[in-house]
């Protein structure tokens, strides 16, 4: 017999009093910390005054140094960043904090770095520190470091060989990665008596382990109960915490095995590990135990590899992105040290620092701008009377510190140009400059100053001078800003992609170099995808091509030029529809450089009063009809820039779009611009009728304008499209000058429907497909109103499609159907500046939740990469502070509060963009109300996570998923 039982919760008599007691304790604690605590008078974030978790959080995020600069700019020279912690960024604090000896002892922060026994860096006992420094000082002296030069040269030669190989192939590589492998192998040689072989294998498991150790130590070091946290970390339910602990243990094992082997097999080899084994106290003769040797070797590997790699990489970044400074450094190296050769492959380390004043100025400026040792070096005020720093009295027991990065970005010391790389500031000899120099403390100061300074400076100077003498390093991204990411010892954020060539050109005449410099100068002025006006286009290109042709005619000057410089100059060539331009490209094909051409960009420009004979000379047709002569040509880009006047006066600007190919054929006989498009496409297509297997399989059409091209409707054009493996299309970015976007003009209305029949429906071999509707003609909400249209993908099937990139597309059912239809082969989706729309029954749009869910339901799912690149950052999309002062349009205050709370409690939560199209002008606007509603509801986030989880299960270890927002204007405390 079954009975029904009801359970009724009866509050305990102790529950309410217990809750009230806890609440009272928390309230009293907060009142004490904010109003009564000796540090309550110092400004700073509220959260930081209550918990050390504030510091730990920003350390974990890798941006504590940036937050501290922000706080000092906001609050002044002294900021409270912990319950008992003050951070100072003034010069007058350096000596009282770091030169006061035992009156400023190290805090428990350093205990977190102990892997074996406390080492020279992490030990807090001053007596042990003094003993250890006496034991190690000889091994780290400049004389001892100079004896390590053969070991350093061995690894430097491997680095040079790798760079020579990249120079021969023209391959792009990550300079930060190869520097890190090189430095790790040097540390292996000098600290562990063996190379790790990282440069030879191209990988090193020690590097992630070092990063993990630093992150774990710096986070735990900022928290109380360190011993408990370290003990619990290995059993943590958080996977990344367990991984950090395992990485540290693996690193300890490597160190212990090396030390044990060294002690069991003594040798004559001179390196730092041997120095540790032989180290003796000059006063007592005491030697190091095996555990103490383990600890010091571990410290050398962690601090030496990360700090040297970061500093050297950032120094090279600044030099490569400041060509005039780099050239001056290279001139100084050549003038003072002379050229290198096969007999002398690297510069000796003796005297480098003293003989290269400008190079050292660059090194110092790099130390100032990006000191990689960013962790706060905490000291505790042990004096019962406290300490006086300037006009501020710091009470006994307070933890205080200065951070290098923060001090080095104090505008009161360095001026308003503190964020500018300016080596000249180190060449001045006045008193003010000398005072500033005392504020440069990349290796700290006082008796705790870094003992590895000589080794670090040796590696940095020897490597930088040698590389700059042998090679010309060229960054792939010239305009990119560098950012230091650091949990304690930092490195530049992201990869540092470069190309390299040899510098040895002593046999080239000087006039050749003048011509090369002029051409490269004009190359930087060439536009890439955007052409704003006809005059500007013609001016930039007309300056470039005559010089290019002259340079091509120097093909017999030297083989070095032909083999090393030409592949980079001619990898990308621009063909205009002029005779001069065509003759220049022809000279490339006949001057031993045809195989260098990887991309051909064709730009056809016509004037209103031109004829077809004026705008399409036979020399141009000859190039376009014979692409097979560029046997390694990979892609062709076509662009016919037009403006409003061209459309109007050339008969293209009509009341309605005319897709009839018969009418287009008639217009192409009378209109120069339309005849130019027909002739150009006809010549390009003719290559594919020749049966050549070496033709490019990538076509890009930029700024597709509103004119129907008759050949688009022919079978020969469709067959041409069916051979392509990559197809990229962007519509024209245009308005009529009065603020109305293209999608409000009647002539535009018929164009979107033709994109499928013309292009998308015939891409049967395409593996990579991209489509940019442009901001002035957003597509994807067909049926909403006359300002928006379908995207013509409803009949597009691409059976080999692996990657799709879409920009300025409204998320819609048509898009979802297209992706689902091709999901069996699709591996990557990239959406740029796209948004969804809600609450519009007439629209074909769909929400992000439905979008992600539709993808996640597909089986099999090969998708490995999903990227959403947003037009606005999270704050802009939510717009929590904006108001219309109209209850009808303003969001509900409760919703605003929920959104703010979620931003603070869930900083990793994503905002997925929603928007709408303006009825009159056609602009796309973000909908902050929809963004707030969807953000708080969280359905989009959950659906996105489900998709990511499915991707990860299907392709473990190789999934890329990211949502990129622009850099925010500011962060909250």
UniProtKB/TrEMBL annotation:
State where heme binds.
Answer: 450
Q: Does the keyword S-adenosyl-L-methionine apply?
A: no
Give the family from UniProt.
Answer: Belongs to the cytochrome P450 family.
Q: Please give the cofactor(s) recorded in the UniProt entry for this protein.
A: heme
Among InterPro entries, the record links this protein to: Cyt_P450, Cyt_P450_CS, Cyt_P450_E_grp-I, Cyt_P450_sf, Cytochrome_P450_monoxygenase
Name used for this protein in its record: Cytochrome P450
> Keywords, A to Z?
Heme, Iron, Membrane, Metal-binding, Monooxygenase, Oxidoreductase, Transmembrane, Transmembrane helix
Q: Which GO terms describe its molecular function?
A: heme binding; iron ion binding; monooxygenase activity; oxidoreductase activity, acting on paired donors, with incorporation or reduction of molecular oxygen
TM ranges are 7-32
């Amino acid at each position: 017999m079954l009975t029904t039982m009801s359970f009724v919760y009866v509050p305990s008599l102790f529950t309410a009093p217990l809750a009230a007691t806890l609440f009272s304790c928390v309230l009293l604690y907060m009142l004490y910390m904010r109003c009564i605590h000796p540090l309550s008078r110092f400004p700073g974030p509220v959260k930081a005054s209550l918990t050390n978790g504030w510091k730990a959080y920003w350390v974990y995020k890798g941006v504590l140094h940036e937050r501290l600069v922000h706080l000092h700019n906001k609050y002044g020279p002294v900021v409270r960043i912990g319950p008992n912690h003050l951070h100072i960024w003034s010069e007058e604090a350096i000596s009282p904090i770091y030169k006061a000896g035992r009156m400023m002892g190290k805090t428990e922060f350093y205990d977190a770095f102990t892997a074996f026994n406390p080492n020279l860096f992490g030990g807090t006992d001053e007596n042990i520190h003094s003993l250890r420094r006496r034991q190690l000082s000889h091994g780290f002296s400049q004389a001892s470091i100079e004896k390590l030069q053969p070991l350093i040269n061995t690894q430097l030669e491997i680095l040079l060989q790798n760079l020579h190989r990249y120079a021969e192939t023209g391959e792009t590589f990550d300079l930060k990665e190869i520097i890190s492998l090189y430095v790790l192998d040097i540390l292996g040689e000098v600290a562990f008596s063996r190379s790790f072989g990282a440069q030879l294998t191209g990988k090193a498991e020690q590097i992630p382990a070092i990063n993990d150790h630093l992150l774990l130590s710096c986070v735990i070091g900022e928290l109380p109960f360190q011993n408990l946290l370290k003990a619990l970390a290995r059993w943590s339910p958080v996977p990344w915490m367990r991984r950090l602990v395992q990485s540290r243990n693996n690193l300890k094992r490597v160190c212990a095995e090396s030390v044990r082997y060294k002690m069991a097999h003594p040798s004559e080899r001179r390196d730092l590990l041997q120095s540790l084994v032989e180290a003796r106290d000059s006063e007592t003769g005491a030697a190091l135990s095996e555990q103490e040797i383990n600890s010091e070797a571990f410290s050398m590997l962690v601090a030496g590899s990360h700090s040297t790699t970061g500093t050297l990489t950032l120094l090279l970044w600044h030099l490569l992105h400041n060509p005039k400074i780099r050239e001056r450094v290279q001139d100084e190296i050549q003038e003072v040290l002379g050229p290198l050769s096969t007999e002398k492959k690297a510069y000796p380390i003796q005297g480098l620092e003293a003989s290269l004043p400008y190079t050292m100025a660059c090194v110092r400026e790099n130390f100032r701008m990006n000191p990689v040792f960013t962790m706060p070096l905490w000291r505790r005020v042990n004096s019962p009377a406290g300490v006086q720093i300037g006009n501020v009295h710091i009470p006994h027991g307070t933890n205080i510190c200065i951070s290098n990065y923060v001090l080095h970005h104090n505008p009161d010391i360095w001026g308003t140009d503190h964020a500018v790389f300016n080596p000249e500031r180190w060449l001045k000899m006045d008193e003010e400059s000398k005072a500033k120099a005392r504020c440069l403390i990349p290796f700290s100061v006082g008796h705790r100053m870094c003992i590895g300074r000589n080794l670090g400076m040796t590696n940095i100077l020897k490597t930088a001078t040698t590389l700059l003498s042998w090679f010309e390093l060229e960054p792939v991204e010239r305009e990119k800003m560098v950012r230091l990411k650091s949990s304690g010892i930092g490195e530049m954020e992201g990869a540092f992609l470069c190309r390299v060539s040899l510098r040895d050109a002593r046999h080239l005449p000087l006039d050749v170099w003048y011509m090369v410099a002029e051409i490269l100068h004009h190359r930087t002025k060439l536009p890439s995808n955007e052409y704003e006006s006809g005059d500007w286009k013609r001016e930039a290109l007309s300056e470039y091509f005559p010089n290019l042709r002259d340079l091509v005619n120097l093909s017999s000057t030297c083989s070095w030029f032909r083999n090393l410089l030409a592949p980079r100059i001619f990898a990308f060539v621009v063909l205009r529809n002029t005779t001069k331009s065509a003759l220049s490209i022809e000279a490339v094909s006949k001057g031993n450089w045809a195989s260098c051409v990887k991309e051909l960009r064709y730009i056809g420009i016509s004037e209103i009063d031109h004829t077809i004979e004026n705008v399409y000379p036979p020399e141009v047709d000859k190039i376009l009809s014979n692409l097979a002569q560029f046997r390694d040509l990979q892609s062709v880009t076509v662009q016919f820039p037009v403006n409003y006047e061209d459309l109007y006066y050339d008969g293209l600007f009509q009341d309605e779009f005319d897709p009839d190919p018969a009418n287009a054929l008639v217009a192409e006989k009378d209109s120069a611009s339309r005849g130019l498009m027909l002739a150009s496409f006809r010549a390009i297509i003719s290559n594919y009728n020749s049966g050549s297997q070496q033709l490019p399989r990538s076509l890009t059409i930029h700024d597709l304008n509103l004119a129907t091209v008759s050949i688009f409707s022919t079978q020969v054009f469709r067959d041409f499209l069916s051979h392509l493996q990559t197809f990229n299309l962007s519509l024209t970015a245009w308005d009529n000058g009065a603020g109305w976007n293209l999608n409000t003009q009647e002539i535009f209305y018929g164009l979107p429907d033709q994109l499928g029949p013309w292009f998308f429906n015939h891409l049967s071999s395409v593996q990579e497909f991209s489509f940019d509707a442009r901001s002035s003609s957003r597509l994807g909400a067909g049926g909403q109103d006359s300002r928006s249209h379908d995207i013509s993908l409803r009949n597009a099937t691409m059976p080999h499609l692996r990657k799709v990139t879409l920009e300025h597309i409204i998320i819609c059912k048509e898009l979802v159907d297209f992706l689902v239809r091709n999901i069996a082969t699709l591996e990557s989706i990239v959406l740029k500046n796209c948004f969804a729309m809600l609450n519009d029954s007439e629209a074909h749009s769909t929400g992000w939740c439905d979008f992600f869910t539709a993808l996640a339901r597909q089986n099999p799912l090969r998708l490995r990469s999903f990227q959403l690149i947003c037009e606005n950052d999270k704050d802009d999309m939510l717009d929590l502070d904006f108001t219309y002062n109209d209850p009808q349009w303003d969001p509900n205050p409760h919703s605003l509060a929920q959104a703010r709370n979620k931003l603070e409690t869930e900083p990793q939560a994503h905002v997925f963009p929603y928007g709408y199209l303006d009825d009159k002008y056609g602009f796309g606007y973000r909908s902050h109300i929809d963004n707030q509603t969807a953000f708080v509801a969280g359905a989009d986030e959950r659906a996105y996570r489900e998709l990511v989880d499915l991707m990860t299960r299907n392709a473990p270890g190789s999934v890329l998923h990211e949502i990129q927002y622009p850099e925010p204007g500011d962060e909250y405390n």
